Amino acid sequence: MPEKTGVGIFYTSVYGNTERAVLLLNEKLQKVGVTTQVYDLSKCDMSAAVAAAFEFDKAVFATTTYNMDVFPFMRDFLERLAERNYQNRKVALIENGSWAPNAAKVMQGILEKCKNISYAEPVVRINSAMSNENEDQISLLCKELL
Ligand SMILES: Cc1cc2nc3c(=O)[nH]c(=O)nc-3n(C[C@H](O)[C@H](O)[C@H](O)COP(=O)(O)O)c2cc1C
Question: Ligand 1: which residue has its CA nearest to atom 17?
Answer without folding.
Answer: 97
